[in-house]
Write a structure and sequence with these properties.
CATH architecture: 3-Layer(aba) Sandwich
Largest sheet: 6 strands, mixed
Structural class: alpha/beta
Number of domains: 1
Strand content: 15-25%
CATH class: Alpha Beta
Strand order of the largest sheet: 3-2-4-1-5-6
Length: 198
């Protein structure tokens, strides 16, 4: 039996698309996000035997909705946390648009870092390390990991063999499911950004 890993992005929140939240405190799901996560839970197949979550509240709230559906506990995993955007945390995208460092980072994700933050390379390394360790430790099981757009995107780029600079070629929507399967040929993408109607 292959190991299956569902990477689930957390649900919608009120600052989505307006503010670069990163690891900003107090960001929680709104009603739209809770409804979409409940719909997402109904479409996780195969059903998970383990649920892990980023430590961010919006991810943990999303994981709790999955956990209620499958009668499981949630294991908080620091390795699947949101990217640390350093000094940009909490700034609006409108404000960042005038920052040359922000524009440079978005043009050269593979070779630049947010001020006092974490590089995409470091993010990708911790995510891939976590996933490959799970595949060794939990052979044949199904794991649901609730994380964020950038961590999930970094995983997809790795397994699709796409450069980090091309990160915008991958969409990861709120409450979407991206599934990996670890079989005889190693880890492969089964689907990316599967969306379900709330």
């Amino acid at each position: 039996m292959p190991t299956t890993i569902h990477l689930v992005r957390h649900g919608h929140h009120a600052l989505l698309g307006r503010v670069l939240c990163g690891r900003m405190a107090g960001v929680e799901l709104d009603e739209q996000g809770r409804s979409a996560m409940a719909a997402c839970a109904e479409h996780l197949e195969p059903a998970p035997s383990i649920i892990q979550s980023s430590p961010q509240p919006r991810a943990m709230q999303s994981a709790d909705i999955l956990a209620e559906r499958f009668h499981l506990a949630v294991d908080v995993a620091a390795d699947v946390d949101e990217i640390d955007v350093g000094d940009w945390t909490g700034r609006s995208f409108h404000e960042l648009a005038d920052d040359p460092a922000w524009r440079h980072w978005n043009a050269h994700r593979g070779a630049s870092t947010p001020p006092r933050g974490e590089s995409m390379q470091a993010l990708q390394s911790r995510m891939i390390g976590h996933i490959e360790a799970l595949c060794l430790e939990r052979p044949g099981e199904t794991v649901a990991i609730v994380s964020h757009a950038e961590p999930i995107r970094a995983v997809v780029l790795h397994y699709a063999r796409i450069l980090l600079d091309d990160f915008l070629s991958i969409d990861i929507d709120p409450a979407s499911i991206t599934t990996l399967v670890d079989g005889d040929g190693g880890v492969k993408l089964r689907n990316v950004n599967q969306r379900v109607a709330a």
